[in-house]
Amino acid sequence: MARGSGIATDALLPGSFHHALSNIDYRVFLRDGAAWMSYSRPSSAPQGTLSGERQLHYYIGSGHRGRTYLFQQQGQWFELPINYYTRRSTWDMAPAFDNTTTMPAPLPVDPNCLHCHATDVQPNLPTARSRFANIPFHQGGIGCSACHGDPEQHLATKGRAPIVDPSKLSPERRDSSCIQCHLEGNAIVYRPGKSLSQFKPGDKLSDFAVYFVRSHEDGDGRRATSQYEALLRSACKQASGDKLTCTTCHDPHYDPTPAERVRYFRARCLQCHTSLAMVTHHAEQPDCAKCHMPSRSTTDISHEQVTDHDIESRPLASYSHLAIRSLDAAADDELVPVGNFPAGDREYGLAYAQEALKGDHHAAELSLQLLTKASLAGASDPELNVRLGYLQQTTGNVEGARASYAAVLNADPFDPSALANLAVIDASSGHLTEAVNLLDRLIESDPTQTAPGLNLVYIDCKLGHQSQAHLVLKQLQRANPDDPQLREYLSTGNYNGQHCALAP
After folding, report:
1. Residue 178 lies in a domain
2. Number of domains into which the chain is organized
3. What 3-state class would DSSP assign to 348?
């Protein structure tokens, strides 16, 4: 954990690879004492020529499973679209980008994600989630404060002042110290005005967020950071209750060497399984995990495996029976909170809204019903209103959507979804000046928003604002140079079935 992040040059993994589908050659290297990533594609490629480089400032990932790097561009912080995978000792595309045919759009650095890799993570600026006043975090890796709180007074008094000891907290607060980073779920819904980056040791995680899984995979645990889901369904946890927690088996201050691991974890099992039959159980195979906690391929990170925390007495050879199902089959499968976290209509509605974004039409219907009910009951926060507005907009309730987006922007003037979607409503109803003002605000604060940016370029072009359209195009090109819609517009003047070519 202490090696979870840091200065890029302190942990640079030089290398290169060719991504066949996008025809891009990526290279990570050291030059003049600085870390860099370059990308290039020849003019002979169907997608067209591409070249550039990014200076790398920080690394993310201890290297146990893999590592990537952060770079800064136009005042914003982003993560590389490529990862180093330790098990294969190779560079490749980041998760979810294996099949991309172009260079992915920049991946914004989010404080909630940094929370589990770095210490003293800084709040992002209101203009964009990937903008920070200075640097995104002040200490690399997971430090003492992640589990014990602010250690300043404890250190100043040479240990006499109190400090948070998770083992002495109530079970819910104790477990929260671990699952703040080791719980993922299918959907995460933050409480109004809360974020994971605000969590402090001693808090209850349920006061900050609710995590949901599909009921058919309640505890599947094959996501890279969802071991807690699987542990909850294990016979060990159900028999031991609150006595069993993450630190029963894992010491956050000690990582056994490969030579010690089998003996170390067998001793953890024998803390509870004390009978002679258990002590002598398969003496020829002392590795309990090999049989009862086998490694499974993860569902969310390519090229990786995770230890199965179901702790089954007779584990299945595979989880093939839990293979991805059709959306129609999933329609009868409800979302359920992990760990009995309290959840109301707002939380359920926002969870189903996240599933709706994946193409689940049944989830969209449920989300609209639940969020409408929560809104009528008095719930009104930016996250609820932006999701509700989108669902209203897609179902033809334009005035309802307009009111929802207006409520969002009244609380958060830079919310990108509200700005972009309200601009579409304004443009469609002939209010082009209002649409341009909304899109100008969005692109000025976050030029990585390529689709809204192209909407702005097209409107400026139709209004005859050629110079302004060219300025926006330059911003979009610097931020996302390989976007296919951007390339098509630059070469043909066509965008979203419309045509308006800019003068050279």
Report:
1. yes
2. 3
3. helix
